[in-house]
Fold this sequence. Notes:
The protein contains three helices and four strands, in the order βααβββα. It is of the alpha+beta class. It has helices at residues 10-19, 27-35, 79-88; strands at residues 2-5, 39-45, 48-57, 63-70. Helix 1 (10-19) crosses helix 2 (27-35). The longest helix has 10 residues, at 10-19. It has a four-stranded antiparallel sheet with strand order 1-2-3-4, with helices on both faces.
Amino acid sequence: MEVKINALTPELFLRLYTSVGWEPPCVEQVERALKNTIATFTAYRNQQAVGMARLIGDGGLSFYIKDFAVMPSHQAKGIGTLLLDSLER
């Protein structure tokens, strides 16, 4: 398993976002959001993206984890922990 930083595309974001049952935003919103994101983290298992997290914030004091999602078929396997560990580093 590996985590890639800043490799999240709008299409991949939407696939992971909807995999957990969230109502998808339009692709233009996702493109803008990713452009203004501090960093993205995408977890891969067997070359398949199975989870993601975005780091957003003001660049000085406040930072937030947003859009933290792991595909249901891959939950409870340490992927969320791997994403958070990568984000904290």
